[in-house]
Structures are given as structure tokens and as C-alpha cells.
């Protein structure tokens, strides 16, 4: 595993370096912002003590919001991507900054402050020359804490479409590539350690009067050294911020770029790579893919409405229930209504039906199927109270998910577990769960260790895959429509399952699989 | 003109009266010690002189102008201030501590600051290898000397000292007392020196101010205080001292 991680790191070093730089930019910008805002807030409440309680309570409260939820709350305000990540990370990092600044300032012996005032210091001089330097050790340890935390948390930011090493982790998880997940995690840990060591040096400097060393390499030299460290740190942050801003600008400028979003699914990674290759091959447009947006449909739809994305692959049944919030179960006779509603309400077009139906299924472990003689959902419902069921978290909320199964089949499992889409199969084979949801295009559908049960009451609706495209994008780039239609009807359930399997079980790159399919069909 | 004048000064903290109708004047160049039990208002009296505390009634005049009229920052920069336990700035070296007030005054003129530091390190007999030490590395007596040097570095003409020697051992205290007397003789800085030690008050002061419950009960030369105690409180305060002298 370690070996394959290193060979992956070497093989894809440009990609990893790119992700590492993005990670550094996102976290350093957040750290710098939080340091400035947190310091100012901490100073303000140390002066105006009556504000301390409410301000501390507020930052404390924000700190307890689960990160995924906060990223989600911010989507309507900041859209999806780096701005969202920087905003959320900055907000989280405020607590350690504000609290340590406040604690550091209020813990100073009042006699020292009175001495400073009694000698004729202005309030500003007292703050800059006496209070802040004395609070510096506590503030520095806050910065150190906050920096490590932010670097780690920035990994999660990739789940909602930001860049950084989390992209590698999430991609590794969703495509069953553990070496990639490990590589991303190790790089994040290494980055956190390096930053912590650097800040540790700065902290030591801030504490030097508390633990004076007998050696006489003293104040003046150290002061100069400190200034150099501060200058280097400031320029690193500025350069990182600048590059980051420039990259964002370069990315967003001009209408020549098509932004494609994908859900965190292997299948969508492959489809997006096909679209990118086709579009860039046939037109002058360039394609920017934001892979694996956590929260799937909800968050991508919001991003589409804001214009963050131009198109993404979506499934008819999902759009019907999740976006249009329709109660009745979808079948393809309702497609015209669905298409019309999207046009009227959002200005989005449904074009290019890929040809496969990624509907849900339920799979049980082979030994479980044999022990209870399971063939259909009705069979499973009869023994469900004795079994454990695993599904991705949103399955339990969706009308076309667990609540529907309960209503239709009376299927009530003894235990249910939340798990990420791509961890389910491993959990099933390991015996942690007995039954899982799966989809008809899963690469693992053909695995011998599982049995797919029959939906005997036709509970599951149809989920045919299409591209959803913003109308104004199609108007701005009319050439796009013909390119997209090249894939119309091109991919069957079996094709999709085979390609998913190639990525998830053979460890091939989504892009390789996509390009191989395109050339196999003579599309490029 | 007297250096400091208190004119019917009343100061309250909540319901407690810290100073009750105090009127007196301190001559320029004199050394006045202030003694009294804890909470009698000694420290408040001192802080009125450098505008850390403002009077509720009456006024405090420094060089003839009221503290309520003056810019408190400017005023404080012309008055040296030494506090109990010295309270050096722990994050600054000895040199930086002494240079603190001069550096507030002459920001541009570093040389003037440096020469002031040199002068006071010499005057207080501090070994020059202490310059780059932090307060945590100093002995109590050294810290106290640095505290005095810091208060005097900007050459103020008034020095306020609030029990500066209360935290050092008897031997160090004796030498510090000699030191401050010598410096007073050399510079002629008007000194207000708060203490709770009657020996110190009588030895150092050209005049002794005895305070009791917010009032000045006697303000006279040490000889007068010993010879003619103004109240039972002063009597008790000096009784032991007198028996020592009588022996």
C-alpha cells in the first residue's frame, strides 16, 4: 500500500504538486484572514469587556457547527469552490484566534499596564509596545493551533468543490483507490507538520523573555532575525494569495470556458472526462471540471442556478424528486413534464440521453442470501429486522430511498448505517453490513460475493442519465449542442458498469477509461 | 512655586472616601515620604499627581497648573513613576526597559535615548553586562535599580515612588535607600516616596507626611514628627523608634 502510494505520488507528481499548492493557498489565505480578523476582534473585546461574552459565545457556537453543514450553508452566499472554502475556514479559525488574543490580553498583570500608563504611554503605545508583546506567547499558540486545524479542515473543503489535497482524498474514496486517498492524507499531514514547526520557531521567539537562555546571542540579532522571519512569512502569504486570486481570475475570465460539475461518483468522473475531451476536441472551448461535489444534487443545483457551473450529468428520477420535489414516483412517461419544468423554473435544458439507467438496487452478501433464501425485496423485508443495512446518508431522507422502501415493502432493518457510496461494498464484503443499496451501473455489480435482489413490486423509479445545461450557455456557445448529442444513446447499462469497474477495481484513471471509450466508438 | 499642590482634594471610590479634604504643598526639590497604614489613601495621593486618578472635589496643581486641565500623557512623561515590586516590562531587556520613556519622547533621536540609558546605568551602578538581560534574570535589588533608572531616564523633575523597596531584603534595601538619597542630592528631583516602614520614612524624608483614613494628620520634618506627634496614631507609630533613639 505504502509502495503503491509512493509510485502514485511519483507518477502523478504534477497533479499532486498542483493540489498541494492549491491547498497551501487556500489554507494560508484563510489563516492570514482569520489571524487579522481574530486579532482585531480579540483586542476589541479585551478593551470593551461587556462585548466579550456575546462575541465569545458566538464564535464558540460557530465552531461547533459541523464543517460539512457550514460549507453547505455558505453555498447560496459564496457559491461552490474556493471562495466558499476560504470563507468557512476563516470562520472556523476565528475561535482559537479570538479566544487566545482575549485570554492573552486579559491575563496581563494590571500593575504592568498601570506602570505603562503612569509613564505616559498613549493607549496605542500601551497596546503595541506592552500588551500585545506580552500576550504574544498565548496568541502565537492560538495561531499555531488554528493553522494546523485549518490545514486539516481544508481537506474537507474539497468535498464541496474547492481545490486542494482533499480532491485526491475524495477522488480516492469515490473511485476505490486507497493509495490515492493515502497520498492526499500524507501530504496534508506533512504540510501541517511543516507549518507547525515553522510557527513553533516563531512561538519560541515570542516566549524568549519567559525562558531566557544564558547564551548571549541577544535581543538585537534576534529582533532582526524575527523581522526577517515575519517578512518571509508575509511574502509567502501574499504570493500565495496573489497566485490564488490570479488563478481564480484566469479561471473565471472569458466565456471560453465551460464549467462542468460532477457528483462524487466514479461514473460522473468518467462522463465529465468524456465531455471535456469531446468539447475540447471539437470546439475552441476549454473545460473546467469540478469533481465530486459533496452533497451531490442539492449543492450542484444551487451552483448551476448561481452560474458557477454550465452543465452536469443528472438523472431523471433524482431531479424529479429532489429538485422538483414531486411526490409521485417518476417513470419516463413524465419526462416532458420534467423537461418543461426545468426550462420554466431554472432556464436549464435537458439534452443528450446517454442511454443507461442508473437506478437503485439492493445487494446482499452471498452467504446471507443463501442462509435466508433471498431472491426478492419481499423476501428481504421478511428478515430485515435481523439484518444491518448500509447506505449513503441522503438515502435515508430521499422519498425514493429508505422511507419509500419502508412504505412499499415494510422493510425495517434492525440496524442502519450511514456510509459513503464507495465504502459500502467493502463494508458488505467485510460483514459490517448485510445489505446495501447499490446502483445498476456499479462496477462491483458483477462481483461474485454479492447477490442483487429483484424489485418485485417495481418500487424504484427510472433514473436515466442526461446532461443538464444552462440555456444561456447554449445560447452563448451554440456549437456545444451538437458535441453533447454525440453521446446520445451511446452508453448502455453494461458499458457504464464495465467502465466503472475499470476505474474502481482495476485502478485505471477515469480520463483513460473515458478516452478509450471515445476512440473505441470513433468519436474522436 | 511649589512642585505639587493639593487644594481641598476629595476622592471617593464608590461609597469609600479615599482622600478627605487634603490640602498641602510639596516644595520643588524636596524629598517627601508618605506613611500610613494600608488603605489610608497614600497610593491614591500619589496617583493624583500623575493624573492616573482625578479628584472628585478640589484640584491638584503640578507646577502651578491643574491636572484636570493638562494633557495627562504629556504630564506623565515629565513625572518619573516607580511602583511596588518595580514592575519592569518582562518582555523588554534592561536596556529597553530603561529606554522606554525616552523612546516615547524622542522617537527619531535614538542617540539621545542611548546616551540617557548609558547615563542612568552608570548612575545606578548597574554592571553593563546586564543591559541585554531580561527582568526574569535579575535579582530583586537589580530589578529595583532598573525600575528607578527607568523612572528617571527621561530626566523628569518629579519622581513618584510607591513602596518601591517593600519586596527586597533588609541589606539590599539599605543600599537602595543610600542610592536614592544620593540620586536625589545629585539631581534635585522632587520626590514623593510612599512607604509603610516608619524607619524608611524618617531616614529618607526631608519631610514626612503621616496619613490616617484619608486625611493628612501630620506633615512635618522627621524631627518634629518624633518630637511632637500630632495625634495618638502618630504617637503609636513613632513610639518604638523614639525608644531606640533614646537609648
From TrEMBL, chain B:
Gene3D superfamilies: P-loop containing nucleotide triphosphate hydrolases. Pfam families: ABC_tran. This is ABC-type quaternary amine transporter. It comes from the Bacteria. It comes from Enteroscipio rubneri. InterPro entries: AAA+_ATPase, ABC_SmlMolc_Importer, ABC_transporter-like_ATP-bd, ABC_transporter-like_CS, P-loop_NTPase. GO terms for molecular function: ABC-type quaternary ammonium compound transporting activity; ATP binding; ATP hydrolysis activity. Its EC number is 7.6.2.9. Residues 4-238 form the ABC transporter domain. SMART domains: AAA. Keywords: ATP-binding, Nucleotide-binding, Transport.
Amino acid at each position: 500500500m505504502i509502495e503503491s502510494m509512493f509510485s502514485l505520488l511519483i507518477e502523478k507528481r504534477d497533479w499532486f504538486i498542483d493540489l498541494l499548492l492549491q491547498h497551501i493557498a487556500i489554507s494560508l489565505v484563510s489563516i492570514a484572514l482569520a489571524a487579522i480578523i481574530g486579532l482585531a476582534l480579540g483586542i476589541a473585546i479585551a478593551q470593551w469587556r461587556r462585548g466579550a461574552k456575546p462575541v465569545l459565545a458566538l464564535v464558540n457556537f460557530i465552531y461547533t457547527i459541523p464543517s460539512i453543514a457550514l460549507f453547505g450553508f455558505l453555498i447560496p452566499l459564496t457559491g461552490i469552490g474556493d471562495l466558499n472554502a476560504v470563507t468557512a475556514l476563516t470562520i472556523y479559525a476565528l475561535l482559537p484566534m479570538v479566544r487566545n488574543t482575549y485570554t492573552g490580553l486579559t491575563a496581563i498583570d494590571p500593575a504592568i499596564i498601570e506602570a505603562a500608563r503612569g509613564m505616559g504611554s498613549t493607549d496605542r503605545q500601551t497596546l503595541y509596545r506592552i500588551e500585545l508583546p506580552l500576550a504574544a506567547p498565548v496568541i502565537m499558540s492560538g495561531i499555531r493551533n488554528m493553522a494546523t486545524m485549518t490545514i486539516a479542515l481544508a481537506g474537507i473543503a474539497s468535498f464541496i468543490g474547492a481545490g486542494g489535497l482533499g480532491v485526491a482524498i475524495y477522488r480516492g474514496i469515490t473511485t476505490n483507490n486507497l493509495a490515492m486517498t493515502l497520498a492526499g492524507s500524507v501530504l496534508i499531514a506533512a504540510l501541517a507538520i511543516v507549518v507547525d514547526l515553522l510557527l513553533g520557531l516563531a512561538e519560541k521567539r515570542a516566549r524568549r523573555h519567559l525562558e531566557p537562555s544564558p547564551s548571549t546571542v541577544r535581543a538585537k540579532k534576534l529582533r532582526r532575525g524575527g523581522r526577517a522571519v515575519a517578512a518571509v512569512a508575509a511574502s509567502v502569504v501574499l504570493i500565495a494569495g496573489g497566485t490564488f486570486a490570479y488563478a481564480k481570475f484566469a479561471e473565471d475570465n472569458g466565456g471560453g470556458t465551460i464549467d462542468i460539475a460532477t457528483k462524487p461518483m466514479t461514473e460522473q468522473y468518467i462522463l465529465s472526462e468524456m465531455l471535456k475531451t469531446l468539447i475540447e476536441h471539437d470546439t475552441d472551448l476549454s473545460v473546467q471540471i469540478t469533481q465530486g461535489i459533496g452533497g451531490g444534487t442539492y449543492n450542484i443545483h444551487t451552483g448551476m442556478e448561481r452560474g458557477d457551473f454550465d452543465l452536469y450529468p443528472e438523472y431523471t428520477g433524482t431531479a424529479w424528486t429532489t429538485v422538483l420535489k414531486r411526490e409521485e414516483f417518476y417513470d419516463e412517461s413524465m419526462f416532458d413534464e420534467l423537461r418543461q419544468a426545468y426550462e420554466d423554473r431554472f432556464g436549464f435544458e435537458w439534452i443528450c440521453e446517454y442511454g443507461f439507467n442508473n437506478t437503485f438496487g439492493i445487494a446482499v452478501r452471498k452467504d446471507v442470501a443463501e442462509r435466508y433464501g433471498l431472491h426478492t425485496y419481499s423476501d428481504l423485508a421478511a428478515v430485515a429486522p435481523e439484518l444491518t443495512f448500509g447506505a449513503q446518508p441522503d438515502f435515508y431522507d430521499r422519498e425514493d430511498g429508505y422511507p419509500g422502501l419502508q412504505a412499499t415493502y415494510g422493510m425495517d432493518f434492525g440496524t442502519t448505517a450511514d456510509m459513503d457510496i464507495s465504502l459500502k461494498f467493502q463494508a458488505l464484503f467485510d460483514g459490517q453490513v448485510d445489505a446495501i443499496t447499490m446502483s445498476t451501473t456499479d462496477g462491483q455489480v458483477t462481483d461474485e460475493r454479492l447477490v442483487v435482489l429483484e424489485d418485485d413490486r417495481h418500487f424504484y423509479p427510472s433514473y436515466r442519465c442526461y446532461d443538464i445545461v444552462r440555456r444561456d450557455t447554449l445560447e452563448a456557445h451554440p456549437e456545444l449542442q451538437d458535441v453533447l448529442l454525440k453521446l446520445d444513446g451511446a452508453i448502455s447499462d453494461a458499458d457504464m458498469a464495465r467502465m466503472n469497474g475499470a476505474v474502481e477495481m482495476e485502478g485505471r484513471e477515469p480520463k483513460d477509461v473515458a478516452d478509450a471509450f471515445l476512440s473505441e466508438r470513433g468519436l474522436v | 512655586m511649589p512642585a505639587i499642590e493639593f487644594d481641598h482634594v476629595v476622592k471617593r471610590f464608590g461609597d469609600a472616601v479615599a482622600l478627605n479634604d487634603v490640602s498641602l504643598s510639596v516644595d520643588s526639590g524636596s524629598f517627601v515620604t508618605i506613611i500610613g497604614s494600608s488603605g489610608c489613601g497614600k497610593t491614591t495621593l500619589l496617583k493624583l499627581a500623575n493624573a492616573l486618578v482625578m479628584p472628585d472635589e478640589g484640584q491638584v496643581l503640578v507646577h502651578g497648573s491643574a491636572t484636570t486641565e493638562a494633557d495627562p500623557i504629556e504630564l506623565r512623561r515629565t513625572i518619573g513613576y516607580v511602583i511596588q515590586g518595580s514592575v519592569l516590562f518582562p518582555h523588554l531587556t534592561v536596556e529597553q526597559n530603561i529606554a522606554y520613556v525616552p523612546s516615547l519622547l524622542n522617537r527619531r533621536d535614538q542617540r539621545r535615548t542611548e546616551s540617557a540609558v548609558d547615563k542612568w546605568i552608570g548612575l545606578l551602578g548597574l554592571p553593563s553586562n546586564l543591559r541585554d538581560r531580561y527582568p526574569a534574570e535579575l535579582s530583586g535589588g537589580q530589578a529595583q535599580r532598573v525600575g528607578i533608572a527607568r523612572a528617571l531616564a527621561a530626566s523628569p523633575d518629579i519622581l513618584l515612588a510607591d513602596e518601591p523597596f517593600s519586596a527586597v531584603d533588609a541589606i539590599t534595601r539599605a543600599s537602595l535607600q543610600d542610592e536614592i538619597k544620593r540620586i536625589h542630592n545629585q539631581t534635585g528631583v522632587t520626590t514623593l516616596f510612599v512607604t509603610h516602614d516608619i524607619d524608611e520614612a524618617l531616614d529618607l524624608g526631608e519631610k514626612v507626611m503621616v496619613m490616617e483614613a484619608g486625611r493628612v494628620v501630620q506633615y512635618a520634618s522627621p524631627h518634629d514628627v518624633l518630637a511632637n506627634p500630632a495625634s495618638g496614631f502618630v504617637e503609636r507609630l513613632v513610639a518604638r523608634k523614639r525608644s531606640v533613639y533614646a537609648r
